[in-house]
Amino acid sequence: MDIILTPDAILDIRGGDTKSRPIVQVLDIKSVRKSPVRYQFVVSDSVSTLQAALDVQLNDKVTKGYVREGSVVQLIEYFYKNHKNIFIMNMRTVIPECVKIGDPKPLGEPHLKYQSAPSGCNAFAPTGNISKTSIFDSTVKPACQPPSLNFITRGSLAKNEVPINPISALGSHLGEWTLKARVTAKGGIQYHRLVEGDVKVISFDLLDSSGGEIQVKYVGCAVVNRFYPYVEVGKVYMVSKGSLKQVPKDYNHLKNEWVIILKATSMLEKCEEDCSIPQQQFLFTPISEIKNVENNSILDVIGIVTNVSHPVPVMFKNGTENVKRKLVLNDDTNETVEITLWGKFCDNEGQVLREMFTLE
User: Fold this and answer.
1) Exposed, middle or buried: residue 193 (CB in 10 Å: 0-12, 13-18, 19+)?
2) CB neighbours of residue 247 within 10 Å
3) Residue 260 lies in a domain
4) How do residues 278-307 score in pLDDT, each as one tens digit?
5) For the chain, which terminal residue's Cβ has fewer other Cβ atoms within 10 angstroms, N or C?
6) In a domain, 135, yes or no
7) pTM to 2 decimals?
8) Are strands 48-54 and 267-270 parallel, antiparallel or unpaired?
């Protein structure tokens, strides 16, 4: 699959551009400070290179292997700092690993004309050098080795080797796209009350082999009735011909600014099992660090249940009733956190935990 970097991206950034969200390649990564660790990149547009400094809040992209030497990334938030380097505040991985594209030179040196990448870019999820000794490993790894492919599959949606796009590459710049991903969660049917009447809304989450995640929604009785029985948690699907909608992070539990909206003309096709796609992906936060996290953030936490309460009914001001249950979690940082389970989680998972805790 040929990868095209954004032409003249380095020149444009040095000229003051902060809005174009260019696609560039990371050629070199090094640590330039220890406390806290600060990473410095060399980025390329296939013609020119420039130094770049990474915001420390993005360090896990390097430590967990999502960005490494050779990665093709899209810069989301950035600016040219002190007339020396790019300061990157937000970015996403397009291709985690790829051969060097073009023959880029530092600005001011002679260089070759712009050219696209050769074939052979490896578009797989990071293997990373993640420690196995901690319970805070970030990703559930598949049990088998992934096959060798470059986001190309063969099926009724891909008879002519239609390229499969990584979720991290989705955005307003991308026209037609096709995803291959696993359903990791599926919500129940909800009803949104509009002027013209109640509307059915369903959502499910997708995870692909590069570690990208995105929420998918389908709205309206006809679309819901068509797709809802077909979607199974744990299965792999090809998805195409949906529309992308940008949503605030407060309305999206995944780390993605986009949501896919399926329409009556959208395509959703079940595929054979693909062990290159993890069953689930977690980014565990130690309990001791929860106090430093921004309010309303979505977190993954792992630990030992030390207490489970009985269910308690709750009556809301609008007259509706629900039920909740509290549990206490402890991890290897010797900190505890109280978690509240509502509704079906209280009745199902909460009751199972209560029975297990009582038996112990």
Assistant:
1) exposed
2) 13
3) yes
4) 888 877 888 988 888 877 777 888 888 888
5) C
6) no
7) 0.50
8) unpaired
